Amino acid sequence: MTKKATSTAMPAYNLLVDIGNTFLKWGVFLASSTGSARDNRLEFGHVLLEEIPALAAQFTRMPTPAQVVISNVAGTRVRATMIRVLEVWPEAPQPHWVIPQERQCGVVNRYRNPAQLGSDRWAALIGARALLDSKPGLVVVCGTATTIDFMSASGEFRGGVILPGMGLMLRSLHQHTAALPDADGEYVETPTQTVDAIASGCQHAQAGAIERLYNLHASKERGLVCLISGGASRALAPRLTIPFKLHDNLALEGLYRISQTLEG
Predict the structure, then answer these.
(1) Annotated active-site positions, please?
(2) Which of 30, 62, 101, 230 has the most beta carbons within 10 angstroms of its beta carbon?
(3) Is residue 124 part of a domain?
């Protein structure tokens, strides 16, 4: 999927890429800009990991980016594939591969080994920090896995949890039980058929984990804001009974903030 800006001429831009466990999400953003990523986005899209080579045909129609900033949690093979795609621009700058730091863009990383934090989680935290206006945040990303990370009002990432995402929960029930079907169900409050019982149970599990962590931190952190992002976030959001804000892609927001700190 690709969405384009309405202008015919593309100004100087940065290419930001978030490579997850299932999808690659990319965006084109004004190179010299202020404000949020959403305000300065020119074009964006996403592809399945196995479809990454097809991006070359699309990128070759675009001018050479000023910067390329990438978060990759999909491993070295996907990294190599992405490098080949970027060869459509012979004079493109070397990509900046995000590695979590002890401190960056106003966020302090309290992981025991900061570099072991997923670069997608780090980017999402940086994006959230830029949007929270010095408020504490519960940063939730609902993708292949669901991550729930806590960040203090001072920007200190104090830790978080990882659990299977909605799709993984559904597939696990089908693959490891003899009688549960692999079919789409719907959320209902009191399911009376198995497919709905599965869909509703998985959504309750996701929402329950988010609400439990929110209540744990909200009792100690005044003004806690829950920010939710990721492919499954819009389906899950109606199940939450806590206040929250939706964002289409916190990782790209964070990559945008990182790009603003890099030399051109």
Answers:
(1) 120
(2) 230
(3) no
Domain boundary pick from 49, 68, 97: 97
pTM of the model: 0.91
Residue 183 placed within a domain: yes
Q: Same domain, yes or no, for 138 and 247? A: yes
Domain that residue 17 falls in: 2-97
Sheet with 23-30, edge to edge strand ranges: 2-4, 41-48, 23-30, 13-19, 67-72, 96-97
Q: What are phi and psi of 212, to 5 degrees?
A: -60, -45
Q: Convert the pLDDT of each residue in 30-89 to its tens digit.
A: 987 777 788 889 999 999 999 999 999 999 999 999 999 999 999 999 999 999 999 999
Q: 122 lies in a domain?
A: no
Q: What angle do CA 89, 95, 98 make, to 5 degrees?
A: 155
Q: Which whole-number Å values give the CA distances from 135 to 28, 156, 172, 223, 249, in the listed order?
A: 28, 11, 37, 6, 19
Give 104-141 pLDDT, tens digit per residue.
999 999 999 999 999 999 999 999 999 998 999 999 99
In a domain, 129, yes or no: no
Q: Running DSSP on this structure, what letter comes out for residue 248?
A: S
93 and 140 together in one domain:
no
d(CA 148, CA 45): 25
Single residue among 97, 114, 147 that ends a domain in this structure: 97
Q: How many domains does the chain have?
A: 2
Rounded to whole angstroms, the Cα distance separating 202 from 192 reads 15
Nearest CA to 226 among 239, 211, 236, 209? Answer: 211
